[in-house]
Structures are given as C-alpha cells and as structure tokens.
Amino acid sequence: MDQASRLRDMVGNGKGVEKKLMAANATGNVHQDGSGVRVISVTSGKGGVGKTNVVANLALALTQADKKVLILDADLGLGNMDVLLGLNHHYNIQHVLTGEKSLEEIIIEAPGGFQVLPAASGIQELTELDQSQRLFLLDELDILQDRFDVLLIDTGAGISANVMYFNFAAMEKVVVVTNEPASLTDAYALIKVLTTKYQQKTFKILINQARNAAEADRIFRQLSKVVDKFLGSPSIDYLGWIPYDEQIPKAVRQQQAVLAVYPDTAASKSFVRVAESLLSSVNHLDFEGDIKFFWKKLVDSWQTDYGN
Predict the structure, then answer these.
(1) Which of 32, 36, 144, 232 has the fewest other C-beta atoms within 10 Å?
(2) How far is 151 from 38, CA to CA, in rounded Å?
(3) CA 103 – CA 288 distance, rounded (Å)
C-alpha cells in the first residue's frame, strides 16, 4: 500500500484513531546502560545565537562517538539545517504529511554520517495538523525507532507554540545562550514558560560564542541567579561552553560543520567535550521517553489546545 492510500485508510477509520493514539504511549525507557533513544531539543529564546550550528556539530561529535544520530529540523516553516550543511534534497516533511513519501524516504545523510529529517519552507504550522496527519506521523515513526540512538531537535527561536511543544516533548532540553542581554532575557522567558505552563523542571545550559571560560561561567551564573530568584523550582545544569572561533564562519561559508573541516580548532574541541558531557549524563536520566513517546506528547498537547 502506498503512502497516500495509508493516509486515506487512517482518515476513513476514525473509530480506531483514539485507540492507536493511546497505544502510541508505549514505553522505551532510557536505561542506565544508555539503551533507548534519547530525544534532545536544542533551543534558545533569542534567534541568532548559533543554535543550528551547535546542533550540526553536536550531531557530528556524537556520530564520531559511535552513536547513530538523527536531526529533526523543527523550524518547520523556515528550516535551514540543509542550507547550513549544503544538503540537496527533493523531499521534506511536507511530502510525508501529504502521503507522498514516508519519513524513511525523506531522510538525508549529512557529511560525517549522521542523518537529517529536513523541514520545508512555507508549510502550515505543525499545530494545524489534523488528527489523521498526527496519527500518520506516529505510524511512520515506528520505522525509525530502532535505527537511532539520539534524536536532536533543532527548534525555532522564541516562545511560539511550536517551539514550546517540541521542547515539552523532548526528554532533555539544551538552552543555548550568548553574552548578550537579549539572549539572557529571552532564555529566561523560555525557561519560565516551559516551567510554569508545561511543568518542565530540568534544563541544560550551553554558553555559545564566549571569549573564555570565565565569561561563560559568569553568563551561566547570571541566568542561574535570575531563575532561582523568580522561578525557584527549575534545575538548570551547566552543560559547557563553546568559544568564539574565527574558523566557525569559515566553515559556515563552506557549508560544513566546523568539526568536519577544522577538527583541531578550539570550537571543535569544545563541541567534542560537550558531546562527551551529554553522553556521560545518561546515567542520571530517570524518565521515560523515545521517539514515539516524544511524538505522543506532542499529539496530546495538540489535542488539548486544538481539540481535533
């Protein structure tokens, strides 16, 4: 049966939709031995902090550590992971939603061995998908469940519904912050919304484009102090820092990850350290989750807010 036929089948079989959505809340724990798929969102309050670059380089560093990595470009209307990495593709998530292609068919391999699930330009907001489309994506994600160790979600910037939902559904949240007042203010706003509206309590903070370790430590302490004072309950952990490095814009112009073309530069070594820190933190994970569970949380949120 082709993808379009499968989608029509799901639309027609309305009685089974709710049952399948409930069944999608399957287990898939991340155990202390590191088994299971880790779903990690990389996000920021403010745009322009280098978030997509961070995702690409972390994906490569994790791949070099023998992990099977998939990037989901979750800025669905304005995705640019493909541009950053110079990836050519004819299909994207829009073709999955129309039933023309499966998720497996639109995944593209990036230089270095990790995979990318490309977004589209100018498609509907994901929050506007109907129930049959959500169910179709859940069904498609079954195929990917055993293929990857890590799903990295490159969210959009800001505090839109899409950004909030992808962060809410992810098992781990990495917030990228730079030494700009607006970056700190917007990161706090992001954490506040996720804490107060979505009851999220744990965040990892990554300082990007810092001049040195002392500056990175100061930025983290500033954010930590404000969060403790006004929000109290969230736990924010220091994941590490990436230095400002002149090789990064050179790599961007070459449409490659800096770790790929300048592996010995300061930023590249920092990306490797941050990836190692993420991998070492698996022993502290005590919550459920996998790719399917991630999408199920999104489905639940959409049903609550949009009722269809």
Answers:
(1) 232
(2) 6
(3) 23
Q: Which of 193, 194, 219, 222 lies closest to 206 in space, CA to CA?
A: 219
Q: What is the biggest distance separating any 2 CA atoms in the chain, rounded to whole angstroms? A: 60
Instruction: Give me the residue label for tokens 């890590």.
Output: 150
The per-residue pLDDT for range 20-48, each reduced to its tens digit, is: 333 333 333 343 344 568 889 999 988 88
Task: Give the pair of three-digit tokens for residue 247.
Answer: 């090789």
- 154 - beta bridge partners? 42, 73
Domain residue extents for the chain: 38-303
For helices 131-144 and 3-12, angle between their N-to-C axes, nearest 10 degrees: 130
pLDDT digit string, tens, across residues 254-287: 999 999 999 999 999 999 999 999 999 865 454 4
Write the burial class of residue 69 (CB in 10 Å: 0-12 exposed, 13-18 middle, 19+ buried).
buried
Which of helix, strand or coil describes residue 222?
helix
Among positive and negative, which fits the CA dihedral 257, 207, 191, 185?
A: negative
110: region left, alpha or beta (phi > 0 left; psi from -120 to 50 alpha): beta
CATH number for the segment(s) 38-303: 3.40.50.300
For the entire predicted model, the pTM comes to: 0.81
Q: Which run of H or E residues covers position 11?
A: helix 3-12
Tokens at residue 203, please?
């965040």
pLDDT by residue (tens digit) across 292-302?
566 666 666 65
Tokens for 290?
């996998």
Residue 131: how many CA atoms within 13 Å on its side-chain side? 21
Distance CA 269, CA 262 (A): 10
Q: What angle do helix axes 213-230 and 181-196 make, rounded to 10 degrees?
A: 40
